[in-house]
Design a protein that fits this description.
single chain, mainly beta, 6-stranded antiparallel sheet, 4-stranded mixed sheet, about 0% helix, elongated
C-alpha cells in the first residue's frame, strides 16, 4: 500500500452554527485510514471538529452560510510520528487579511430617508434608500424635535437582521454604532407637537465582510498610512481621512 494519499472534500452551503459529517474517501485507497492533514483552500469559518477513519465533521462557526473546499491527506510517516494537522480555526498570525473598500460614499444627512416631522405618524413612510456600502447610520433632527427615539430596522453586512434605537438631539446629529447594509423600516417613539423633523442619514464607519478579532489594524487611504478606529464588535472601521466618494481604503487586520 502506498504511504501517501491526497483528496478533497467540499462543504457546500453549510448554515451558520451547524455541523455536517462527510466521507473523506481515503478508505477507497486503503483500510482504516485516518487523515493526518486537513486544510482549507482559503480562509473560512468552517472548521474541523471531529475526524474518524471514515469521515470528517465540519462546523460553521460563523454568522452566515458558507461553503469551503478542504484538502485532505494521509501521510504514513506523519501517522507513525503521531503528528496530525486538522483545521480548527486559523491562528491570528495566519489570518491577517487585507480588506478593500473602494470609492466609499460621502456621508449624508438624508441618505436613507428624508426629514419626517415630529408631529407626523410614528412610522417613517419611505421610500428608504440603502447605504451605498454597509455603514453606520445617523439621525439629524431640527431644533424643535420632540418625537423621541428613532428605531431603525434592516440587515447588516452579513445579511443578518439588525435594529438600532437612536435618540436624536434636537438641533444636532447623532450617529449609531451598528452597521446597516439595508434599511427596511423606521419608527419614532411618539407623535410630537412640533413640525420640525428628523432625517436618517449615514456616518463614516464602514462595515466589512470579515470577522474582525481585535480593535486594531493598519489602514491605507489611497495607499498612504492613515489613522483608524477598528470596531471588532460590529466588524467595521472609521478612517481619520473620511470617505468622499473617491477614496480607497485597505485595512490590514486580524480576522477569525
Amino acid at each position: 500500500m502506498a504511504d501517501l494519499f491526497k483528496t478533497t472534500v467540499q462543504v457546500t452551503s453549510l448554515a451558520a452554527n451547524t455541523s455536517v459529517t462527510a466521507s473523506h474517501g481515503l478508505n477507497s485507497e486503503g483500510s482504516g485510514l485516518k487523515p493526518t492533514k486537513i486544510v482549507p483552500d482559503e480562509a473560512t469559518r468552517v472548521k474541523v471538529t471531529a475526524v474518524t477513519t471514515s469521515g470528517i465533521t465540519f462546523k460553521n462557526v460563523g454568522p452566515a452560510t458558507e461553503s469551503a473546499k478542504f484538502y485532505v491527506e494521509y501521510d504514513e510517516a506523519m501517522e507513525d510520528a503521531g503528528v496530525y494537522s486538522w483545521h480548527t480555526g486559523f491562528s491570528r498570525e495566519d489570518q491577517c487579511r487585507l480588506i478593500f473598500t473602494e470609492n466609499a460614499a460621502t456621508k449624508s444627512a438624508t441618505a436613507v430617508h428624508a426629514s419626517l416631522a415630529a408631529s407626523a405618524a410614528v412610522a417613517f413612510p419611505g421610500a428608504f434608500t440603502n447605504p451605498v456600502e454597509p455603514r453606520n447610520l445617523s439621525c439629524v433632527a431640527a431644533a424643535g424635535w420632540d418625537a423621541g427615539i428613532v428605531t431603525i430596522v434592516g440587515t447588516n453586512q452579513w445579511d443578518e437582521a439588525v435594529s438600532e434605537a437612536i435618540t436624536p438631539t434636537p438641533g444636532g446629529t447623532v450617529y449609531g454604532v451598528k452597521i446597516f447594509k439595508t434599511v427596511t423600516s423606521a419608527t419614532k417613539a411618539a407623535v410630537g407637537l412640533s413640525g420640525d423633523g428628523c432625517s436618517i442619514g449615514t456616518g463614516d464607519k464602514l462595515g466589512v465582510v470579515a470577522d474582525l478579532t481585535e480593535a486594531r489594524g493598519v489602514l491605507l487611504c489611497d495607499d498612504v498610512v492613515d489613522a483608524v478606529t477598528v470596531d471588532a464588535t460590529y466588524d467595521a472601521f472609521t478612517p481619520i481621512t473620511l470617505p468622499d466618494g473617491a477614496r480607497d481604503y485597505k485595512l490590514i487586520a486580524n480576522v477569525a
